[in-house]
Amino acid sequence: MEVVISSSAEQVDRLAADIVEHVVQSGPAVLGLATGSSPVGTYRELSRRHRENGLSFAQCRAFLLDEYIGVPRAAEQSYFAFIRDNFVDHVDLDGAAVYSPDGEADDIAREAQRYDAAIAEAGGADVQILGIGTDGHIGFNEPGSSLRSRTRVKTLTEQTRADNARFFDSPDEVPHHVLTQGLGTIGEARHLVLIATGESKADAVAAAVEGPLSAFCPASVIQWHPHVSVLLDDAAASALALADYYRYAYASKPRWQRL
Ligand SMILES: N[C@@H]1[C@@H](O)[C@H](O)[C@@H](COP(=O)(O)O)O[C@@H]1O
């Protein structure tokens, strides 16, 4: 695992965009996309590179991490709409090649299995962007999630519902249930890129990076993965015991090893 601490959120966005650009330029790529505010700057930077430098996503396919159950795709609160509005509409990624779990499927359990299988059939994600919840969730894998779980229904904690209430007209409208890729599913992506900025994420980041590997902090599952980049600003890194070491290790990293 590589922990990179930047002095600004914009630098975090550029580093994440560098990783995605590298993957996209290496051939037809399968991108794992996260929603939430953490990766929005990365999507903005990738859109800029598309516009100004011709970075093309035309050969890519993309899979979302999760979706609310019962929120229609047409609604602006759906993650389907979020990724369209914040990324897909700004680049040349084919909308038909962007997949998300259908939170309105008649048979939700079957939809979960279908979605998991579709990711595997596509060969798995080459790079998976991740945010982190204040309770340590990734995707919507709340505390207690099996470290080998597959795509399935989860019940949101009250903390997560409160954190996400800003996207809804009233806190009561935040769904209680979601479909999310499991921790096992996410772990099959070839490169995990976890993005966190701001002090509100500091404790969750410290638990994920330096705490025990535990279902209590689902994001700690990244410790089990062979290729992880954790991209933080100073505030999100402020509770890390080894912050000085991570800074030194990155600053002294040979140029040829940069990605
Ligand atoms: N399901 C999403 C996660 O994928 C995201 O990482 C998290 C943090 O969101 P934010 O980046 O807005 O803090 O929120 C939601 O719960």
Automatic annotation (TrEMBL):
Gene3D superfamilies cross-referenced by the UniProt entry:
3.40.50.1360
Annotated EC:
3.5.99.6
Instruction: Copy the pathway line from the protein's UniProt record.
Output: Amino-sugar metabolism; N-acetylneuraminate degradation; D-fructose 6-phosphate from N-acetylneuraminate: step 5/5
- Site (Part of the allosteric site) found at 145, 152, 154-155
Kindly give the CDD domains that the UniProt entry links to this protein: GlcN6P_deaminase (cd01399)
Any keyword Transmembrane?
Answer: no
Any one Gene Ontology MF annotation carried by this entry is: glucosamine-6-phosphate deaminase activity
Identify the catalytic residues.
66, 135, 137, 142
User: Keywords on this record?
Assistant: Allosteric enzyme, Carbohydrate metabolism, Hydrolase
Activity modulation comment: Allosterically activated by N-acetylglucosamine 6-phosphate (GlcNAc6P).
Listed under catalytic activity are: alpha-D-glucosamine 6-phosphate + H2O = beta-D-fructose 6-phosphate + NH4(+)
Q: Which Pfam family, an example, fits this chain? A: Glucosamine_iso
Family matches, as InterPro entries = Glc/Gal-6P_isomerase, Glucosamine6P_isomerase, NagB/RpiA_transferase-like
Tell me where in this chain the Glucosamine/galactosamine-6-phosphate isomerase domain is found.
Answer: 11-223
Q: What does this protein do?
A: Catalyzes the reversible isomerization-deamination of glucosamine 6-phosphate (GlcN6P) to form fructose 6-phosphate (Fru6P) and ammonium ion.
Write out the similarity annotation.
Answer: Belongs to the glucosamine/galactosamine-6-phosphate isomerase family. NagB subfamily.
Cited HAMAP family? GlcN6P_deamin
Query: What's the name of the protein?
Result: Glucosamine-6-phosphate deaminase
